[in-house]
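From the pipeline queue, job 12 of 40. The input is one protein chain; the requested action is below.

Action: predict structure.
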Amino acid sequence: MTWIDWIYRMLLGAITHPAGGVGVVAPIGSSYSVEAEELRKRAAIVAFCRAQLGEPYVYGTEHPLGEPADDWDCSELSHHAYNDIPMEMPDGARFQFNFCQAVPFGLAGDLHFLWSDKLGCIGHVMVDTGEGTVIHAVSGRGVVEDPLGRWAGHARYRGCRRHIEIKISEHELRLQKLEDMGDILHQIAAAVGAGKPSPRSRRGGR
């Protein structure tokens, strides 16, 4: 572990696990009903997607909202899952990416995206289950549930996003800032490393 990684992990731990090791807990007070409704919506999105597991994949398939469907592509699945709640969500992975707001990590119902080299834009969307997995419609596999780790480390992975009507918590904003800080620290370390003289030149030897 480099000193940059150590600093970043210390900062991350201080925010995610404050003094005493207690995690950050959101107050429930008067906002409890709002939070309960958000949880209901998240659960409904995941339940809708799970009900489609095993259905075949058909690229570009279109179905009227609110009506049963027996095949899906990736964005049609998330499009229907949200509008079934109902919450407005455009069709098309790239449009969903632009419609939603970036978050540092996903909760149930949030969306994860992959880049398409062929299309030159966002080309795939997956629905977070909140259980370390994602549900998505995939060519040759149909609607499946995969470990998130299978895709989050992929070179084409472009992060997680959330519906614009669902608020990002202060805790998540702090984590986002820490991620940005971590990127800056690694850039500084790379610049310092690139400009560091070799041991031979420091000794003045040939």
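Job complete. Residues 170-195 form the longest helix (26 residues).
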